[in-house]
Design a protein that fits this description.
heterodimer, A: about 110 residues, mainly beta, 6-stranded mixed sheet, about 0% helix, B: about 110 residues, 7-stranded mixed sheet, 4-stranded antiparallel sheet, globular
Chain lengths: ~110, ~110
């Protein structure tokens, strides 16, 4: 069965520091992997996806994610965090439908 | 494009009443998804349609829930009768297809059943 795990409920980081939000997956075959962000009282917004090719995927708002097949991971990264990045982040794996992780709350402190 | 449109944005109703949530997908998208989000259970897929046909309704909690998509630009999710445990935020999303296309989410309907 396809699944995705986000091991951290919350990640705290100071503004200006690099951030990483972790995601691991379990899927048979080649995975399609996604990151979404949810701001308070809003729907989820698409950030980036990996289908094939370059293991480093660049997305919206300066975010990027690194696909690592040997570690079955797809961690979300940003070189320099902003307070406005504070939100709930979801990793997802796609078959015919999206299977979401439980979400990681990112808190960026000034 | 206006994005995915959902109505109402907020709904407060009493237990036992019928609730209808509405969704207009992005024009040109042929897949539509209904999700429910709660603190306890996170984000759950309830049902999805492809070309107006229900493909997977395994996430629908029970027979009180039903969903329709009479045409490519409109879908409804109905709960009859509603119960307090149905209180949640319900999201509609649409996409050009299933994998590997990304989904675009509406703003959600916050349902409170008292």
């Amino acid at each position: 069965a396809q699944s995705v795990a986000q091991p951290e409920d919350q990640v705290n980081v100071a503004e200006g520091n690099p951030l990483t939000v972790k995601c691991t997956y379990s899927v048979s075959g080649n995975p399609y992997l996604f990151w979404y962000v949810q701001y308070p009282n809003r729907g989820l917004q698409f950030l980036l996806k990996y289908i094939t090719g370059d293991n480093l995927v660049k997305g919206s708002y300066g975010f990027e994610a690194e696909f690592n097949k040997s570690q079955t991971s797809f961690h979300l990264k940003k070189p320099s965090a902003l307070v406005s990045d504070s939100a709930l982040y979801f990793c997802a794996v796609s078959t015919d439908k999206l299977i979401f992780g439980t979400g990681t709350r990112l808190q960026v402190f000034p | 494009d206006a994005g995915v449109i959902q109505s109402p944005r907020h709904e407060v109703t009493e237990m036992g009443q019928e609730v209808t949530l509405r969704c207009k997908p992005i024009s040109g998208h042929n897949s539509l998804f209904w999700y429910r989000q709660t603190m306890m259970r996170g984000l759950e897929l309830l049902i999805y349609f492809n070309n107006n046909v229900p493909i997977d309704d395994s996430g629908m909690p029970e027979d009180r829930f039903s969903a329709k998509m009479p045409n490519a630009s409109f879908s409804t999710l109905k709960i009859q009768p509603s119960e307090p445990r149905d209180s949640a935020v319900y999201f509609c999303a649409s996409s050009f297809g299933t994998a590997p296309y990304e989904q675009y989410f509406g703003p959600g309907t916050r349902l409170t059943v008292t």
